[in-house]
Amino acid sequence: MSKKYNPLSVVFLGGVGEIGKNLTAIKYGEEILIVDCGSTFPSLETPGVDLIIPDFSYLKEHKDNIVGLVVTHGHEDHIGAIPYLVQEIPNIPIYGSNLALAIVDHKLKEKKQTAKLNVVEAGDKIKLGSFEVEFLQVAHSIIGAFALAINTPHGLIFHTGDFKIDYTPIGNSKPVDISTFARIGNRGVTLMLGESTNVEKPGTTISEKHVGKTMDKIFMANQDKRIIIATFASNVNRIQQIIKIAEKSGRKVAFSGRSMINICEMALDMDLINMDRKNLVEIEHIKDYPKEQTCIISTGSQGEPMSALTRMGLGIDKVVVEEGDLIVISSSAIPGNEKAIYTVINNLYKRGAKVMYGSLEELHVSGHACREELKMMLSLIRPKFFIPVHGEYRHLKQHAKLAQDLGIPEDHIAIAKIGDEIEIKAKKMQLIDDAIPSGAMFVDGHGKVSHEIIKERRQLSSEGVIVVVCKVNRVTKTLSDDILIKTKGIDVTEEMIDEIKIYAMKAFSSLELQDHAFDEEKFSQACAKKIMKRLDKLTTQKPVVIPIVMDDEKGLYE
Amino acid sequence: MSKKYNPLSVVFLGGVGEIGKNLTAIKYGEEILIVDCGSTFPSLETPGVDLIIPDFSYLKEHKDNIVGLVVTHGHEDHIGAIPYLVQEIPNIPIYGSNLALAIVDHKLKEKKQTAKLNVVEAGDKIKLGSFEVEFLQVAHSIIGAFALAINTPHGLIFHTGDFKIDYTPIGNSKPVDISTFARIGNRGVTLMLGESTNVEKPGTTISEKHVGKTMDKIFMANQDKRIIIATFASNVNRIQQIIKIAEKSGRKVAFSGRSMINICEMALDMDLINMDRKNLVEIEHIKDYPKEQTCIISTGSQGEPMSALTRMGLGIDKVVVEEGDLIVISSSAIPGNEKAIYTVINNLYKRGAKVMYGSLEELHVSGHACREELKMMLSLIRPKFFIPVHGEYRHLKQHAKLAQDLGIPEDHIAIAKIGDEIEIKAKKMQLIDDAIPSGAMFVDGHGKVSHEIIKERRQLSSEGVIVVVCKVNRVTKTLSDDILIKTKGIDVTEEMIDEIKIYAMKAFSSLELQDHAFDEEKFSQACAKKIMKRLDKLTTQKPVVIPIVMDDEKGLYE
Description:
The structure is a homodimer of 558-residue chains. With 558 residues, chain A is of the alpha/beta class. In chain A, 31% of the residues lie in helices and 24% in strands. Chain A has an eight-stranded mixed β-sheet with strand order 7-6-5-3-2-1-19-20. A six-stranded mixed β-sheet of chain A has the order 8-9-10-11-12-18. In chain A, strands 14-15-13-16-17 form a five-stranded parallel β-sheet, sandwiched between helices. In chain A, strand 9 (131-138) and strand 10 (145-152) form a beta hairpin. In chain A, helix 4 crosses helix 8, helix 6 (208-221) runs parallel beside helix 7 (236-248) and helix 14 (494-509) runs antiparallel to helix 15. The mean pLDDT of chain A is 93. Chains A and B meet through helix 10, helix 12, helix 13, strand 23 and strand 25 of A and helix 10, helix 12, helix 13, strand 23 and strand 25 of B.
């Protein structure tokens, strides 16, 4: 007699069909294990929004069944939404590497929150309900990155996390242990969730070590210059390389930008960065040293609006960029950030600095596996079922195709979308729900911003706003023809003003007031609708119309 | 005794410090020769704007002295603003290639305008006032592209236009005649204006012929599929190559997208595209043929909002994309368009199509000279003075450095900005004015949109709008505390509403009404200012505040 098992399923709440805000729930019976809880950055399409996080409705509904949250690493798209999750569901135990959890802890402290943070190391196995999670070291653009081998009563689920294959990592990272993946594969993997970020890129990624070699050359060739390097604050290995080279060439080092200072302080405390502390200077004091004996490591490599590098370009930073400075941008542009980065580069050039950037030289390497590495991982793991994750639709599709080329049958591969629950059975995967409450939540400094508000802002931005003040006498049931119009973000012609008045009147007369009392809300809606429709027809403009109803009981305006 | 010459200068009205809206005025004495009159595309930072054009104030002021407008080629950034210039200054004679002027003519007709259009051919010389302009054929991503050798009483000005070196051009283009440039160089060039678009790219561009080879392979490998190729409508040579290959493989061809249809019809009429007309099918009828025997050439390679390819992705186009279709995007992303293009690609994948894109294969080659070609041109022309054009600041700076490396003295090189007038003297160049009226004009379907309006829209979009209705009794000089508040694009808390009321009251009491009459305008300004300041301090939000003043003479609301 076989033991009765509960069903096993995966609920996708973020990170599929998009790059960012990764959030996956693995469900065995009622038990839920969460993998990652990331945020994504707003764009010009979400004006006034500071952060985009996943919708937690599903997790809140099942909060008593959550056995834990495991984080693969400390990047924002994997941990950025944790403070918001903790706010809603305070008691989830969280597991991750020392650096990842130090970053989480910092975020929580900023919001005066606490959570149950449990540091794990590569090789650790923890039991969370019916799940046993083994943390496997992978190389990535941050220290303390894990793949996960999650044992369930239905067999192993292998989650790659974000990874690359780096045979010659630097700093504190051990070389990637391919035999570990082979061991996992040999145990037999029921389901693999594989990251897809670089599936469009052929070949293999370049080792982080190459960036060190490039930096070495740059420091040698620019001994007469102050060197300012912008890179990702979380890329502790790269920062360690830069510091070593700076120290070797007799330079003092300063960190610039809030997140650079925070993360580097953590990394120093945790011995993830090794340096002679007397070479470390606060950014305020770096100008006291001869320029050519200093090196500044800065945020802003994505052209972020108020980052250190952007401020340097604008001449409003503590660090005043001048002729004779060398600025090295050690990153590649995240799609959508290109224009902002180029603006910063133009500004730095205008201040007389020399700027190195782009893919010409090996100033940056990716942290994500390219096609050959993805193939290697699939070949080592040889999963029964495969679901590509961490990618826009085209990435997922191409990763699925790759898996198919490697021999996984088409019906053993699924492309998931946010809101899907896929059940893993002995012989097949099955989409059992495609409408799990999910999606994006917008957050600004004051909390959540509704989708409705964002929609209004977008309309306001492209077409402006027209305020229409109508004076209504509720007793005589009349609308005064003295209608007042104010606008912002749109120029209205005399013709438009006349039309607005006519259509406000039409809205009023459509109300059938002879039988009913005047309903302000109803009138406002009809008024806005009619005017918008008319202006669209007349001028193809669709401004936001705000009707204001004023009482005119005493016939004040007649 | 030497003849008395007038001064020679160049006035930069667009296309320096930016890529787009090229407009240069070359001035000898009072005479003005205009080179190009381009537009640039709006971004999310200019909401609701359809087109950005140069400020024509300077040209309007000197309109009686304009001897002509010469256009280097028919791309939007070189001709897109001509209808707006013609509207302001109707009688300027315009000179350019047959294709460039056909595109201009089409634009003018759309606006029911006419202009004096004069077609010139490569090798033609025309006399315009004291200037003699020779049109020299260059290779570019459009047929009929010229460099200009402009003879002036102070010697030759050489303007490269947009160019690349293509030893194996296709279609109707003759191979680039390097000896022509050598001849110009041997005549002695006083000033060279050189395009800088690709100065960041090492080496040389790839010949357009390579794209044909790639397309050949793609057609061979996909004989069972309908093939849809998106590219720039103006790249007539590429379209010619695609048509040839389609015809060879027995496919019917249809054009999709307004500009593709327009330009291809012109090119067919002008014999710039050669094909068997019976292979050309209207887009509405292409579905009547077996799919694998058809090829659609479409607009939308930049992910433009309502373009044919974007509509196909959304499933709202005449062409219904399905499983088994192959879509080839033969372009590279113009910075800023990446996200839009990826969205289109994701949508096409979701419809089951196979999509080829990106730089992996030679699906596209640039039309702009890379570093080695720029060096060759500078070496052939050997100008006395050099001003890099067509580039953002970093491009101009790098091109200037290149010229310096090739032996042009630093003080013979100038980096210009929009609004600069640089005089060319025998021994030096001199900035004689840096504040020529100039800049960007925003245009939408209804005409010009002011910078103020755009500023308002940006503020509306990031923070929303608050309408504050205040009832004022002008006789008793009192403000009713019954203040009405309406919002769009922002959520206001009870606390914010209270503060808004308090600060409206403060604005009112600051007016010193005991001695003066109530001034509605003054109050509105003070009210908006005080409320905005308070909300910023309280919540860091900066919504647009629109105060509305209502008369409360009879104490209606007390």
